[in-house]
Amino acid sequence: MSIKQNLNSIKSSIPEQVTLVAVSKTKPVSDLMEAYQAGQRIFGENKIQEMVEKQEQMPKDIQWHMIGHVQRNKVKYMASFVSLIHGVENFKTLKEINKQAKKHNRIIDCLLQIKIASEDSKFGMTANEASEILTSSDFSELKNIHVVGVMGMATFTDNQEQIKKEFILLKTTFNQLKPLHSKLEIISMGMSGDYLLAIACGSNMIRVGSSIFGERNYN
Ligand SMILES: *Cc1c(COP(=O)(O)O)cnc(C)c1O
To answer: Where are residues bearing N6-(pyridoxal phosphate)lysine located in the sequence (predicted)?
Structure first.
């Protein structure tokens, strides 16, 4: 199937209030343009440099989401245009995003990445760490960021029960944090293999790559 057909079939399988982020990492601009022509306006990348290069070449009405691990020293390269940063793992990174956003006179939306997977390799904070950040006075001084939700990545496994437990953990964490910070609206969870399960568990933003653009080749 073509990129356009893939997009249409995913969009017809998800509720309207769920935002689809087209994860275009490693894919050429020509593939992204095909998705753009089909109406897609939200793209997710996991490397800042790659996102910057694509942003420069593509139409300016695209919303660029940074979905990968955020290296603090590279925040400055995306601060002028990034629309949502999913993977914020600590207060220091929030502070740096705030500083760079301020230079551009912008407010940058961010999600706190919560560690829901059992794998040590996955990044993220605990629910307690997130609530400490959201209630701290240092956080209330950051005027150029808005924390608008949470993001999580499930364990890389075929075990649907385990994935489901982890998705429910993220939804529960969101429910715990929401009374502390009314701006929280987004629950970013679900990828190509599990987005329907994620939506059933409360996701309202899915990050789908290979089901739209085909398998990635990292060579
Ligand atoms: C690559 C990636 C995705 C998309 O994965 P697919 O399985 O190709 O849909 C989603 N989220 C993050 C954080 C990713 O790095």
So the answer is: 25
Q: Judge contact between 203 and 190, C-beta under 8 A.
A: yes
- Residue nearest to ligand 1 atom 12, measured at CA: 67
CA–centroid distance, 154 to ligand 1, in Å, is 11
Contact in structure between 167 and 159 (CB atoms under 8 Å): no
The CATH number for 80's domain is 3.20.20.10
| Ligand 1 atom at shortest distance from the alpha carbon of 191 | 9
| Residue of 197, 108, 107, 183 whose CA lies nearest to 152 | 197
Instruction: Report the predicted TM-score, pTM, of the whole model to 2 decimal places.
Output: 0.97
Give the bridge partners for 88, in sequence order: 112
Nearest residue (CA) to ligand 1, atom 6: 209
208 lines ligand 1 (CB under 6 A): yes
Q: Do the domain assignments include residue 156? A: yes
- Consecutive 10-residue averages of pLDDT for the chain (219 residues): 96 97 98 98 98 98 97 97 97 98 98 91 89 98 98 94 97 98 98 97 98 88
Count of structural domains, the chain:
1
Which residue is associated with the tokens 């969009």?
A: 11
CB-ligand 1 contact for 152 (6 Å cutoff)? no
Asked whether residue 219 is assigned to any structural domain, the reply reads no
Instruction: Check pocket membership of 68 for ligand 1, CB cut-off 6 A.
Output: yes
Q: Please provide residue 66's backbone torsions phi and psi, each rounded to the nearest 5 degrees.
A: -90, 115
67 lines ligand 1 (CB under 6 A): yes
Q: Give the range of the structural domain holding residue 154, as residue numbers without chain letter.
A: 3-213
Decide if 112 is inside a domain: yes
